[in-house]
Structure formats: C-alpha cells, structure tokens
Amino acid sequence: MKVGIVGLPNVGKSTLFNALTKSKVLAANYPFATIDPNVGVVNVNDLRLDVLFEIYKPERVIPTSIEFIDIAGLVQGASKGEGLGNQFLSHIREVDAICQVVRCFEDGNITHVEGSIDPLRDLEIIKIELRLADLDVIDKRIPKIEKKAKAKIKEAVLEYDALIKVRKMIEEEKHLKDLDMSEDELKMIKNFNLLSLKPMIYIANLADTDLENPESNHFYTRLIEKANTEGIQVVPVSAQVEYEIANLTKEEQLDFLEAYGLTASGLDEVIRSSYALLGLKTYFTAGVKEVRAWTFIDGMKAPQCAGIIHTDFERGFIKAETIAYDDLVEAKTPQAAKEKGKVRLEGKEYVVKDGDIMVFRFNV
Ligand SMILES: Nc1ncnc2c1ncn2[C@@H]1O[C@H](COP(=O)(O)OP(=O)(O)OP(=O)(O)O)[C@@H](O)[C@H]1O
Ligand SMILES: [Mg+2]
C-alpha cells in the first residue's frame, strides 16, 4: 500500500517525507528540488501493540508499515507537459492514496511558485491538473473501443459505458459514489488508475508559531471550511518542526513539543489518517517469540488474511483461532479468554475484524 505526497513545488513535501521516514532526502528552498520520487517505509504506531506486549511478554514486537512516496511538485499546465509534467503524473498513478501538502505558512524567504499564499487556489490548481490528466487518458481510450462497443462486443460495451460515466463525473466534479455504476464497471475503471478517484487527505503545513492555535491562521480555517464541503480530512502539522524533532530521543521530543505548546507530534495523525484513508485494518499474531501487527484490507476473509503471512497459509487454510482484542484485554490472559469461551474457531467465510488476534491452522 502506497501513499503519495503530492502538492505544488516548494510547499514542504520532502520535509514532511523526511520527518515521516527519518530520512534526509533533499529538501530545499527552490521549486523542483525533488525530481525522482523518494520512497520510504513508515511504521504504524499502534497502542494495542504495547498492551499485547504486556500480555505475551514476547522477545520482539513488529509493527505494521505503509509506504510513503515523495513526488515532484506539480504546477499549472502539468497535464500539458509543464514543469515535470506527465512524468510526474505517472508517479501519482502508482499510489493508492494521496496526502496533499497545502502550504499555509507565511514566510517571505520561502518561494511560492504562484507568488502568494492561498491554499484554496493551490487546491484548485492541483485538482484541475489531476482532472485534466484523467480526461486525457479517457479521451485517448474512448476512440479505441468505440467501434467495438457499437458492434455490441460485451467487454467493449462495459468499458465504453464506464468511461463515459466517469468522464461525465470528472467534468461535472461529482463523486464516484453518486454514480450509478455496476460492480463490473467499477472494476473496469480501477484499471485506469485515475488520479481524481484516489482517496485524499490534506496536510495543512503550518508555521511553527501557528501550532499552538492553528485556528488563528485564516488560511488554515478557510482550508478546513473547503475540506468540509468536500468531505476531505485535514491534518495540521508543521513539516519543518516535525523534521527538526524527528531524530531526537523521545524525551527531547517532548521538551521540544512542549515549547510549541503541543503534547504529541502530528506525524502519528498523518500516518493513522493515511492508513484509514486506504481502508486498512490490522490483525495481530501473538506468542512468546513475537507479537506482530499485520495489515489487511477491510472486508478480507480469514484465508486471505492468512495469505498475507504466507501463501501456504491461504492454500492450506483449515481454521483460524480468533480472539477479539477487547475480549483478550478484558480476560487479561489468553488462557483466561479460552476458559471464558472467547476463543472462537473461525472458518473460510469469516470476515476478519480490526484487532483480531489470530492463529491460523493449515495443512499443505
Ligand atoms: N512548516 C514550514 N515552515 C517553514 N518552512 C518550511 C515549512 N515546511 C517546509 N519549509 C521549508 O520550505 C522549503 C521547501 O521544502 P521542501 O523541499 O520540503 O518542499 P517540496 O514540496 O518537497 O519542494 P519540491 O517540489 O521542490 O520538491 C524548505 O526550505 C523547507 O525548510
Ligand atoms: Mg521535494
């Protein structure tokens, strides 16, 4: 699962990426500092792992992770080849969700490609470019299948109808959920990796002085209002502050945060929101050797979830011993949970739930 960090040039994308991934890729005060995408893996902090650690006292705890990709800045006209143009857009096609960094901080020393701070204008630029790029893809495809669709070839009719619907949706700025599309049409559309259909959150990149009270920044409040109308979540952070504290010890971090009137880093919220945005859930495996978190997609059944660990587990799946996280915590030990009848034996059709602690029985 990949999350792309997207936005205008020089708004703080690489700075945020460095903070998230504890890396040191080039983040610099000029547009197009980033050209090739940077890729990094980020652990997903989960307090439940700390609790499971206390229960199982394992030798090690392994959190789950997601991948972040820092992508080159996008400018007006990118869909027509401006800036890094289509090369840039192809990198966005590969991600499953988008974190859009929106500059809300004022700083005369840091160049803004549009010459002023205006988050709503910036959002509009990005949105238009993503939509134009999609229309381009659709309009190249439609003539290729039109004849076959008119000749009533089944596959082509399905694809043609789906493309026409989505084209209209993009043009009229509607949502996919407002469209009357069949399962098959939706599947078909997925293959095109359309940018405007990717789930998105906005990261409001604030000045350090705004952290204590973001609402005092009118750029930020306007961004929130806009996002509310779109049903998009906003996460406020200062990429610069997060970067500065990313490599400190936990204790130093707390002191540093306190100086800004904060109790926690904003990065966890960025990571958690991205995880949720992707529709991701977590199940656990737990024992004395290892407690480990595994990511699955909402709706997956037990065998598929087993397959995330090893394909043999899926192929030879028999049953899954399952305890709900809350049941385990309430019972205090796996033994007590068993005695209370809280350990369930689930079969092939079981839809795994967030927090399930699972032991897979399999035979190959
Ligand atoms: N919240 C912030 N407050 C002040 N300065 C910031 C903040 N976030 C980032 N910056 C500064 O903005 C400049 C640009 O940052 P960065 O290189 O991360 O941008 P970018 O979006 O990756 O740009 P590009 O598109 O060129 O790759 C850097 O000098 C960075 O230190
Ligand atoms: Mg960059």
UniProtKB/TrEMBL annotation:
Assigned GO CC terms = cytoplasm
The prosthetic group or cofactor this protein requires is: Mg(2+)
Q: Is-annotated flag, keyword RNA-binding?
A: no
- Stored NCBIfam families: redox-regulated ATPase YchF
Q: Where does ATP bind?
A: N10, V11, G12, K13, S14, T15
Known function: ATPase that binds to both the 70S ribosome and the 50S ribosomal subunit in a nucleotide-independent manner.
UniProt xrefs under SUPFAM superfamilies: P-loop containing nucleoside triphosphate hydrolases, TGS-like
For the OBG-type G domain, which residue ranges apply? 1-257
* InterPro entries assigned to the protein according to its UniProt record, in alphabetical order: ATPase_YchF/OLA1 (IPR004396), Beta-grasp_dom_sf (IPR012675), G_OBG (IPR031167), GTP-bd (IPR006073), P-loop_NTPase (IPR027417), TGS (IPR004095), TGS-like (IPR012676), TGS-like_dom_sf (IPR023192)
Stretches assigned to the TGS domain: 279-362
Q: What is this protein called?
A: Ribosome-binding ATPase YchF
Q: Which UniProt keywords apply?
A: ATP-binding, Magnesium, Metal-binding, Nucleotide-binding
Q: Name the Gene Ontology molecular function terms of this record.
A: ATP binding; ATP hydrolysis activity; GTP binding; metal ion binding; ribosomal large subunit binding
